[in-house]
């Protein structure tokens, strides 16, 4: 086959196809081939494959040049030098340079560049990933991307260089980075560098990318027009081949067949020269072909220059500036011309614009109407959808916004008008509450009257008994000295023990009342006792205080929870104790380790009669089954079983056992008999424990409520205090409380809790202890550890049973609140006809007083708290550690401090204010309620108000339903129409008010409520708007709540009236009893002769009264001042000396029961006589208050109260 030279091929192509579609396969002119490497045979090349080797070296050379181009472009971008070309492939593996490059053209993508290191680390892949993220941002097509392993593991480094070339073209087109340069031919490398590069390329076996076509490929991927011409033809060869005769000669000398090849080459060259030189036509074609080649080179040079210009930032900037100035000048000139034209024709332009706009608007409106008419059904659907969306959004704002606007509330204010029961029942409820409070106040006053009668009866009986005792012991009074002594003894008998709370004097009654108030406060305000019990558990009460006595006193205060009220209050105390202790513990483990006083309290009070019935019903069959089984043995210690086997063997045989007496657990279990017995005991223990477990978990409703509600409170408090604590830990605490604190003692000591009546033998008690131990392990949810290694075979059973026990514990905590369970509310004590009583010893009471007094700063945190006030009124406690008091019990009768129940007129005013605010915002709108109230009322507002009044305040005759409170009375229309602003003023008629007056009344009401602290004025009275919004959103819930409150208040009112009737009856009984007693005593005394000794002062006094016909019915006695002074009754006479007392006459008489008349006569007083009628109960009241003396006869005479009562009792009631 003959070898065709490139020139011959050019000749053939030109001759065959002409010059129209001529393609130039090679370039012969060396000076026009910038960047090309000439393949020239060197002197040292003797192989005939020198051309192929050169071509391979050229491939490696060009690849190194492309790396150099990428390196120089990166340095131009980063403005810093990077590694040399031959080292760049290795240095780029860590992605550090790529990350810097990514940060250059996309700010913010690269978060943190992992620095270079001696070794390549996996975190360097983050740098490469940042580069990929930057490529994604600039939208480089995926076809140019490389894989992470291509660079990180050097699987395809040429693809990486190719990606950088494509990126440079993309960024240069967007003026983000400079153009990449063509350095082929401009760089030089050693033969070793080129050879090493080629070896790497050969070993990687990767296809070399088309670096020359990267620009066109990028345009194609970006769907851009390539242009009318291309600089490079895809078939244009890159090599210029020149054949040298000398090199050919050398080849001929080195090979045996070189002569024939040389001859063939010479012949081909001669033929080619003859073809062109001898044929002018072919020569012409060759010239044309050369011209085409030169033109193509010139165009390429021009294009490169253009690219150079565009790549120059200064040139581009100058060109852009010139273009911008030219465009600006042109636009300004056009604008000036248009402005001049429009200004000269302004009127005409305005008319044209107006007409055009009008026409367009009318056409648009007509088209819109036509479109809506054609799609009327769709329009309605859209409107409904939009309305529903707007309404739902507005309602969502109403329900979710903290402070909804007035407009939002106004949009839904109509929801409050659905029924007359809304505000009307609110008014009825408040009225009924006020009635209840008024009745409670009346009952309190009546109760105080009854107590007063009780005191009077006690005083009267005490004085009467004192007289009888004196008369019986002394007989007749024979001389004045003895009479005076007896009078003093009678008066001294009224003195009471300072520690006594049973006296009928004012001091004793006050101390008793204060102690009763203290007991009621400690019962109903559990925070004080909760703090006290918490301090008791921590040992912070101080010296001289008996903590055990405190715990027993607390139980005594609540009467051992023997009735529903005391159990309810004790449960509240325990709940408060839990809250108090939760603030002091840091973890559930710490809570488990502590021994709290309130737990003892709960367990102790829940073991009463009804709780013992529960224990007996639950545990009696199970415990009896174990106790009655004499052969049952649940011993689980192998060593103990081993010793028992030895003892049994020796007892049966009468000989010493062959077994050794000292044995370990392993030794014991090696014995077959011991091992069999041990396994049997474990099986029996598991069976018995299962029976207990099944019986306990089958009981839920029978478990005492107190234990269940405390367990519920404990669970809720744990979940709130330790939200991240696992559920198992909380269940473990509940199980410890329910089982270990409550059930376990009844299993271990059943006879103490009346579970069984018999005595438990020692062996059976050990069996019960083993069962209790198993149940304790199950309740704790923990398996047996190394401490109980011989019970480890039961761990599977414990694990399974723990889940069952845990479910039972959680089921027990699902219980209703105490208020619902006991049906208790805040007015229970006010409506109960029987007051609660507490029986406590004086020693316990004084010790409690002393404890509170010593720890007041820790118990009462407020300076003027109720506890501090009571203790300050009581004064120092009479308790001291060595104090001895008689063994007696005090009965403290507790009552609610009704003086602290105000007539809550503000609540009624708040309801009326909300109603007036609703009327106001229905008529007028504004940004806030305050702005509405301050803005003027317009005529249209007045008209709207008149229309609202016509519908709201209808005629009373047509509205007879829903009378107030359901008991008749005012109609609903009347209640809406009239607003009672105060108790003294008449109701305000809203029908007579104008809208402006309505706003004035509303503004004043709101101002009063804000000054009273009921309402806040912040945000323009936003708080009352929030209240109305809550009324709207929670209307149904509020209705149900209000109906329940109405029923409860009605029942409370019935109970209060029942108590009122009871107190009235009790008062009448006390009053009748007192009157009858006084009358009977007086009548008995009246039957005796009243003359006394004849011819005495008393004798003539009575005879004179009889003659005058004015003798008192129950007697009259005349004394001289001296006589009364000597008896100690008369203490002092105004402006008189004792020596003149015999000139004073004092007459004591009683014509009506219980009315004592005292008359005094003295010549120098200037008036005939002084007289005063004094009810006997006033004397008793003065004595009760502890007064020793009192003034009578208009202050002229001072007498001893006790001795005067003694004399009156002696003369009129004895």
From TrEMBL:
GO BP terms: mitotic actomyosin contractile ring assembly actin filament organization
Residue ranges of the region described as Disordered: 230-261
GO cellular component: mitotic actomyosin contractile ring
Domain Calponin-homology (CH): 64-171
Gene Ontology terms, MF aspect: actin filament binding; calmodulin binding; GTPase activator activity
Acidic residues composition bias: residue spans: 240-251
CDD domains named among the record's database cross-references: CH_IQGAP (cd21206)
PANTHER family: CALPONIN-HOMOLOGY (CH) DOMAIN-CONTAINING PROTEIN, RAS GTPASE-ACTIVATING PROTEIN WITH IQ MOTIF
Protein name per Swiss-Prot or TrEMBL: Ras GTPase-activating-like protein IQGAP1
Organism this protein belongs to: Phascolomyces articulosus
Organism lineage: Eukaryota, Fungi, Fungi incertae sedis, Mucoromycota, Mucoromycotina
